[in-house]
Structures are given as C-alpha cells and as structure tokens.
C-alpha cells in the first residue's frame, strides 16, 4: 500500500462523542456529503529593495467539518442548537366544525388549555371572535347561531405523550464534541481501504436553516463545525488502514 494512488466517492459516517465526558451523543450515518477543510495563515518577514518576502511564518491552524443531510433527527437539531429536549409541548390547533342543533354548543375532541379558545363564524375567520365559555371539551356560545352553523375554533393544545420538544433559548449554545469518521478509499489497484478521520475537538456552529417546500428535492440541512485544538494541540487525524 506504500504511497498508493487513491480516490474517494463515499460519504463519511460520523460518531459524535461529548468532548467533556467522552459519552457517545449521536451516530450520524445518514449524511449525503461530509467535507473536512483545514486552514492556516501565513505571515512573512520582508526586507531589501522591492520589499521581497524573506521568511515565512505559519499559524492560526484551524478548519471546519461540514455535513449535508436530507435526513434529520431531533438529536441532530439538539447537537446544532444546544437546546434542551423535553417530553411536553403546547401549540395552536385550528378546527372547522359546526354548532349543535340548538346553535349554542360546540363539541371538541379534546380539552383545550384554559383561556385559549377563540370561536369565529366560518365566513369571518380571524375576524370578530364570538363570546363563549368552556367546560372540559364543550364550548358554549353566549349568543346562539342557526342550527348546525359552521364555525372555526382556535385553541391551545397541550401534549405530554409521544412528543419531543427542543427548547432553544438565547442562552442555548451547542457543546463541543470529538468526532470519529468512517469511509473508504479505492486505489488504482482496485483495493478498497478503510479510511478514518478523528476531529479532536469539534464545535458545531449555531446556524441552522430548516426549509419546507412542496416541490423539488427534499430539504437539505447543512451543519458546519469548527475544528479546534484539544489540550494536546491535536486538531485532526487522517487514518488509512491496510487490510
């Protein structure tokens, strides 16, 4: 394998370990593109006629790990945002329904959060709210409408089962991670060689763009992580394994 000519046409599977505890945090084996970039700055001492460069100094070694994925998970969002995951959520629900025969009551399928119900005539959506009171799943109008009149009801729904919510605050920031990457290289001799990368200290940037569209390709989420030096000045390992 000594100094073999190689090429790559496969994505890296990545395992993120919490940098402080070394506990596995996320197995990211669904990316489409993983790109590792190393950067550095050069400064020169100059002297003489024409001000030529005489001595070169290197520094500010850094880099990035960029991941593009069309598959997303709650754990991935947590990695990017540093938000806290909880098992309860509250959000607005909109229901198109009808009043009863008497024109005074509306039966909901679930009990709304207290003080969150607003009722509108079907032809006045988000217009003038109809006065009402609420008891459990029943909404009673102060003024009767015609029998079976169509109405629109807005209310706050609280969910505490089968839900995951990430709460992102202005004080939420992602953790640092050690990242292990796994892919393959192929040589001109048709050998397939395991190839590994180790990012010693990886800091996800907090930028995240979630796009939702009803046409074209599925939305792609791009995650960019800054490569930092650990306590031993390690930034990145590139490992090629001969089998």
How does this model look, in words?
- There is one protein chain.
- This protein has 243 residues and is mainly beta.
- Helices cover 3% and strands 50% of the residues.
- Strands 1, 2, 3, 4, 5, 14, 15, 16 and 17 form a nine-stranded antiparallel beta sheet that branches. The protein has a three-stranded antiparallel beta sheet with strand order 7-12-9, with no helix packed on it. It has a three-stranded antiparallel beta sheet with strand order 8-11-10, with no helix packed on it.
- Strand 2 (13-18) and strand 3 form a beta hairpin.
- It is elongated.
Fraction of residues in helix: under 10%
General form: elongated
Q: Which structural class fits the helix and strand makeup?
A: mainly beta
- Average pLDDT number: 94
List keywords for this structure.
3% helix; 3-stranded antiparallel β-sheet; single chain; elongated; mainly beta; 50% strand; 243 residues; 1 helix
Question: How is this fold's topology laid out?
Answer:
Layout: E1 6-7, E2 13-18, E3 24-28, E4 33-46, E5 53-69, H1 74-81, E6 84-86, E7 89-98, E8 105-107, E9 118-121, E10 132-135, E11 138-141, E12 150-159, E13 165-167, E14 177-187, E15 192-204, E16 221-228, E17 236-240
Antiparallel strand pairs: 1-14, 2-3, 2-14, 4-5, 5-16, 6-13, 7-12, 8-11, 9-12, 10-11, 14-15, 15-16, 15-17
Produce a short descriptive summary:
By secondary structure, this protein is mainly beta. Helices cover 3% and strands 50% of the residues.
């Amino acid at each position: 394998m000594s100094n073999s000519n190689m090429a790559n046409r496969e994505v890296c599977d990545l395992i993120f370990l919490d940098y402080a505890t070394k506990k596995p945090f996320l197995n990211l084996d669904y990316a489409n593109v993983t790109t590792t970039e190393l950067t550095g700055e050069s400064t020169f001492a100059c002297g003489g006629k024409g001000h030529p460069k005489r001595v070169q100094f290197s520094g500010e070694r850094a880099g990035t790990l960029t991941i593009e994925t069309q598959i997303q998970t709650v754990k991935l969002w947590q990695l990017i945002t540093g938000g806290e995951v909880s098992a309860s959520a509250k959000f607005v629900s909109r229901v198109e329904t009808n009043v009863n025969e008497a024109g005074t009551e509306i039966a909901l399928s679930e009990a709304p959060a207290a003080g969150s119900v607003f009722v509108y005539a079907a032809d006045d959506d988000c217009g003038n709210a109809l006065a009402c009171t609420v008891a459990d799943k029943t909404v009673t109008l102060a003024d009767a409408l015609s029998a079976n009149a169509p109405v629109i009801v807005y209310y706050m729904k609280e969910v505490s089962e089968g839900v995951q919510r990430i709460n992102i605050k202005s004080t939420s920031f992602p953790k640092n991670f050690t990242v292990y990457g796994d892919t393959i290289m192929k040589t001109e001799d048709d050998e397939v060689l395991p190839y590994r990368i180790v990012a010693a200290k990886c800091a996800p940037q907090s930028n995240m763009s979630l796009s939702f569209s009803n046409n074209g390709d599925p939305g792609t989420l791009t995650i960019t992580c800054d490569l930092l030096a650990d306590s031993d000045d390690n930034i990145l390992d590139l490992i090629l394994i001969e089998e």
